[in-house]
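Quick one: Adenine phosphoribosyltransferase from Aquimarina intermedia, C-alpha cells please.
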Amino acid sequence: MDLKKYIRDISDFPKEGVVFKDITPLLGNAEALKVCVDRLQALYNSGQKVDKVIGIEARGFILGGMLAERFNAGFIPVRKKGKLPYKVKSKAYSLEYGADELEIHEDAIQPGDRVLIHDDVLATGGTAKAVCELVEELGGVVVQCNFIIELDFLNGREQLKKPVASLFNF
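--- reply ---
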C-alpha cells in the first residue's frame, strides 16, 4: 500500500514558507492506519524488549499508544508545559518555529527501562532530543526514535545521536 498518498502538503502552515506534512488522511483510513502501525513496528527490529513507548504531544500520542500495545509495553505521554497532573520533570527545547518546554511524569520511567520514542515528524530534532534527555535523566535507555516522516533537509537525525528510523524521507 502506498501510504504516501495519504500524506498531504499544506502550504504556509503554521507560518508562511513552511510546507506542513498532514497525516490526518492517513489516520482517517482504517486500512492505511493499520499498515502504517505495522510498518512502524517493523522499524524496530533489534529483537530486544521495549518496556515503554513514549508518544510526543500531540500526534505522537495516536500511533505511540498503538505501538505500545503491539510491543506489550507501557505508554508514556510527553506533553507541553502545564498539561500533566502529577509531579513532572521538564526540559526546554528549540524547534523550527521558536522554543517550548516538554514535561514527563517523574515516575513514568524506571531505571533501566528500554524506551522507544515515537512522533509523527522528525524536523530539526529539538523536540525528540529533549525527550531523549528526559528519558535518560530518569534512568531509561532510548532504544530507538521512530517517525512516520523525516525531513532530511533539516538534519534532525544529527541532533539525536540515537538509532532513528522513519517510514518516509522528504
